Each structure stands twice: as structure tokens, then as C-alpha cells.
Amino acid sequence: MLNALPNALPKLLKTLPNTPSRSCMAVVLSLLTLFSLSTQAQVSFEGQFEQGALIRGKAPAGTQVSLNGEALKVTPDGHFAFGFDRDAQLSQELRLVYPDGLTEVKPLSVTKREYNIQSVKGISNKIMKPDPVAQERAAKDTAQVKAARGTFSEQTAFLQSFIWPLTGRISGVYGSQRIYNDVPGNPHFGVDVAAKTGTVVVAPADGVISLSVPDMFYSGGTMIIDHGYGVSSSFLHLSKLYVNAGETVKQGQAVAEVGATGRANGPHLDWRLNWYQMRLDPTTIVPSMATVLAAEKAQKAQKVAK
């Protein structure tokens, strides 16, 4: 592996006899080491290498990138994205083939996360045990959502600094397993922000609406915004949707209102981050809620002082 050469060079040279061949080998290995160091400086990442995280990378234009053997889409100027799901393997591999043909294989160490267990009461029996008609409806909903999450577009909004679509008290966290009426459910794949029905939700980044459905069985009012290169945002349990599929939205634009539709135990926004079908933690790409709320409080205080 190229990035191991700086450490391997001294050990390798010690095994060679003190001859002209050894001197030549030292020169060759030194040059390879320089190439290695130069290559390492060519790729950079934004994001923490941990379960649930979205990672955004930058390499020289024309670089081919693959994760665990699967090719990634790369923008013309070398940007790319990938994610680590909730239970991602802790050892993964990124392979980069640079425009000059030089190949670098980078082992990735992923940090394991611990998740919370939450109990939710009061879910109606018809939702806990839907009838065949409801199951068929839910299956159609799922197909629509998967199709929207599977969208690839050449938008580069995924590179923006994302903002919270709504600020307030976080009532549910990514990765937690919820127990509905004492029955274990699937892990929660979003972050919940509690708010009153009708509270405005804004786009966390630019994008195109790939799904806008007012009433899905489980998720109620549901919207998905495509940010490009497989990255999208999902909003669940909405009471009102302002925009339709195919419309372009800008960061900060009002797109919907909070609700308690579908399988919800109270009004809140369930914001989910996706990389294609992989569901990631939105909090990995925004400032902490505490930081944002503190900034909002400081701004209000300044206005009052004026």
C-alpha cells in the first residue's frame, strides 16, 4: 500500500547489503515515498468516520473512486459522497485511481456508535396491526420512497453546508430502537424535532423535490428533496406540503409544515438523510442543535438591545 511506504522504507533498506544496488533501491523507494505523500495530500474528506455518517470527499478532477469495490459517482471537478449506515462494518476500503494512473488504497476505520432504546405508547391497533388493504397501501408507499431515494442527479447541492430544517427540542435520535406498545420496532432512522402542528419546515440545502405525497400510511405527509449524487433529505409526518415533485427549492425556502400524520404520537418533524437507499444521521452534517439555539437566542437579545 502506497501510504505505508514512509514507515516501511527504513526496515526494507536494513535488509539489503551495502552495495550499489542498495543505493539504487533507496533512490527508487524514496521517489515512491514522495509519490505516496503527494497522493495522500490530493484527497480530502469532510465528516467523521463513524456509523451513520455522510462523508463528502474531494480528489483531483478525473479521479476514479470506489468504496469496498463499488464505484462511486464523482463530479467533473472531483467531489464525491458516501455513507456509513447504522451498523456499518468498522473496517472498509476506499480505492482511488488518479488521472495519472497512480492507484491509492485507503483503509477506513469506522467508529462504532451506541444507540438509545425508546418506548412509544398509544399507537392505535389499526396501525400496529394493519389490515391487508393497509399493508398493500404501505407496500406501494415504500416502493415510491425507494424510487425517490434511488434517484441520481448531477446537482452539487450535497456539497453545501446544510442547515436545520427546523429548530427546537430534539425528541428522537437516529439509530435508536423504538418499542411501540411494548412491541420492538425497527430502528429509528431520523432525528425528530418537536414542534407545534403548522410550524414551517425549510429546505436544509438546495435541491429538487423527488417525492411529495400528503398522506402515506406510516409516514403521513412525506417529502423527499434530492440534493444530488445520491444524497437526499426525507421529511415525515407533515401536515401540509408547499411544493410538488419536480420543483426546485433553495436552501432556507419554506417547503412544508410540521404535523402528526401517519404513524406519529404527536406533532414533530422526522428529518432523515439518505445516500441512495442507505439511511444516515442528519446530525452528522449540521451544527449541534444546542449551538444553533444559542445563536438564535443571542440574535434575539441583540435585536432587543437595539
Beta strand %: 25-35%
| General shape | globular
CATH superfamily of the largest domain: Glucose Permease (Domain IIA)
Q: Give the H and E element order.
A: HHEEEEEEEEHHEEEEEEEEEEEEH
Total separate domains = 3
Molecular structure report:
The chain has 306 residues and is an alpha+beta fold. It folds into three domains: 2-40, no CATH class; 44-109, Immunoglobulin-like (Sandwich), CATH 2.60.40; 117-295, Glucose Permease (Domain IIA) (Distorted Sandwich), CATH 2.70.70. The chain is 23% helix and 34% strand. The chain contains five helices and 20 strands. It has helices spanning 5-14, 20-40, 125-128, 132-149, 289-305; strands spanning 44-46, 54-58, 64-67, 70-71, 79-83, 91-97, 103-109, 117-120, 170-172, 177-180, 183-187, 191-194, 200-202, 207-216, 220-228, 231-241, 248-249, 254-258, 268-275, 278-280. The strands form four sheets. Strands 9, 12, 13, 14, 15, 16, 17, 18, 19 and 20 form a ten-stranded antiparallel sheet that branches. β1 (44-46) and β2 (54-58) form a beta hairpin. α1 (5-14) packs antiparallel against α2 (20-40). The N and C termini lie far apart (60 Å). Mean pLDDT is 88; it is low at 1-10 and 27-40.
